[in-house]
Write a structure and sequence with these properties.
By secondary structure, the chain is mainly α. It contains twelve helices and no strands. The longest helix has 31 residues.
Amino acid sequence: MTTTAARHSDRRISPVFVGILAVTAVTGWATWTGFAEQPGLAVFLFVTAAWVVSLCLHEYAHARTALHSGDITVGAKGYLTLNPMKYTHALLSIVLPVVFVIMGGIGLPGGAVFIERSRIRGRWRHSLISAAGPLTNVLFAAVCTAPFWLDALDGVPAEFRYALAFLALLQVTAAILNFLPVPGLDGYGVIEPWLSYEVRRQVEPFAPFGLLFVFAVLWVPAINGAFFDAVDAILKGLGISDFDTYCGYDLFRFWRGTNEICTAAS
């Protein structure tokens, strides 16, 4: 009985995650209805809370896939509760990605769950565990962009549309960047099982710095411009204009004051 109860508790959704969902719902409602006195603050809270929800789902996807692949320890570690406080590095997993968003409008999840890879057999399973996280961002992006490519924006308030557009941008950038074959990111985790032992041993020391390396490279103007051109092309293909994402980011950074162009279009 005790073991069964423990297993149920290991998989019970955390009140912390429920609280984050509640913040997302309330601030989303405030953005939609215009209830908030400062729409920018409502957009900031809505996008931030929704972004943290996607981070939790990203890590949950890793853990859940690992569980079904043979790592039965993920439950005891709290990874199946969707509680971000249970992650290996709360700073890298939650705080740093939010800072990245504020600084540059880039969605870049950090490393979080520790998978006991020795329990997992088969290279395909190892690759799937790594791919599960960014695939979750792809799914989240599909949900955020659905009103645009389904042409279902009639009656949707401008501020909410801008917020969805910016949130979609974060999910697209997160998916692209995480699939890069850079040590420490999920893209490298996908190909790592197929590399020779010698290559893996040489690359391993660089894994802790992969995330910061990518962020630093994105500060190079030429690379940053090419990257966001690619992101914009994807979003345009899904019906989201540059103007929508620009105004979404502008509203998100409410402390800088709202651009009059976005206000006039609302």
